[in-house]
TrEMBL record:
Domain of life: Eukaryota
Organism: Punica granatum (Pomegranate)
Protein known as: Uncharacterized protein
Entry-linked SUPFAM superfamilies: Cysteine alpha-hairpin motif (SSF47072)
Entries under InterPro entries matching the protein: CHCH, Cys_alpha_HP_mot_SF
Length: 73
């Protein structure tokens, strides 16, 4: 029997923060679409594209913030 660190701890660190993401609405819309059209993922492509674009912008903003930080000032 494997030991667990806690029942409320998600298996992946990023899973704990997905709800804090500005892309969470796009994420949930994608999942709802997948639930509705389980057998035809092509019907959800627009949701996937919107979520992908949001994550791209989120990543670019994070990289820009990191570029503006200085460890030596």
């Amino acid at each position: 029997m494997a030991a667990t660190s806690g029942a409320s701890t998600p298996p992946y660190p990023s899973a704990a923060r997905i709800a804090d993401s500005p892309c969470y609405p796009q994420y949930t819309a994608s999942l709802k679409c997948l639930e509705e059209f389980r057998s035809d993922k092509s019907k959800c492509q627009e949701h996937f594209d919107v979520y992908k674009e949001c994550k791209k912008k989120e990543r670019e903003a994070r990289l820009e913030r990191n570029r503006n930080r200085s460890f030596f000032s």
